[in-house]
Amino acid sequence: MTESQPGVHAEQGLSGEQRARVSQVVEAARQRVGDFYGGRLSSPKLLVCLTEECYQRIGGGKERGIAVLNRSVMLSPRGLDPVIASHELSHIELHERIGGGADVPQWFDEGLAVVVSDDPRYLAPASAPDRCLIEPTGPLPVTLGEWLHAAGQDPGTYAKSACQVSRWLRRNGERAGLQTLIKGLNNGDPFTTLVKVAPQAQPTSW
Fold first, then answer.
1. pTM (whole model) above 0.85
2. Cα(191)–Cα(206) distance, rounded to whole angstroms?
3. Residue range 20-75, pLDDT digits in tens
């Protein structure tokens, strides 16, 4: 791979049009994350592939993109999009801001990334009174292992988590609430004392 711009390593042999597309996606994704968090503290490397062969060669799989060890983001040809790129960048930005000691459940991390990336697959438009597309009806995955299992069985797990996070943000001042949460986590306060979620709807019995 070659460094096409500072912090961005793209597949070799790209055309001028392809390089321009990579640059546009990266800039839009960084802007989206910076706008939401009020600036960016993280500066991960981005490894961008425009062919599946390239993505497999750098260790990628079937995912569109992935954050690696909070230091880099890998984007597949299917993930060269501001939504996917900003989703992965959001993970790294959150982890950069809370440091290594804070414990954030996976559902919040993933749901927040969906909100930051404004992913229309899992959220209604920001102008909607309620952005939820799928109502959470039970506990959401806390650990990474639980998340991978749940999301693998039910893609709606992303929408359910984004629903919970979007509602929490609206009740707590949106970005201001997130900044307060980050400050509390860095002060050593447990996540469960800082984030109170509304009671979840229960499935209807017939």
1. yes
2. 36
3. 999 999 999 999 999 999 999 999 999 999 999 999 999 998 999 999 988 899 99
At residue 123, the 3 state secondary structure works out as strand
For residue 132, report the phi and psi dihedrals to the nearest 5 degrees: -70, 135
CB 93 within 8 A of CB 124: no
Question: Residue 73's closest CA among 86, 54, 57, 56?
Answer: 86
What's the start-to-end Cα distance of the chain, in Å?
A: 57
| pLDDT tens, position by position, 99-139 | 866 789 999 999 999 999 999 999 999 899 999 999 998 89
User: What are 73's strand-pairing partners?
Assistant: 46, 67
Tell me which residue of 115, 120, 106 sits closest to 177, measured CA to CA.
115
Instruction: Round to whole Å and give the CA distance between 169 and 115.
Output: 10
Q: Is 192 helix (H, G, I), strand (E, B) or coil?
A: helix
- Residue 124 structure tokens: 């209604």
Which burial class, exposed, middle or buried, applies to 3 when counting CB atoms under 10 A from its CB (0-12, 13-18, 19+)?
exposed
Sheet holding 72-75, edge to edge: 2-5, 8-10, 45-48, 72-75, 65-68
Query: Measured at the alpha carbon of residue 88, what is the angle toward residues 77 and 133, in degrees to the nearest 5?
Result: 95
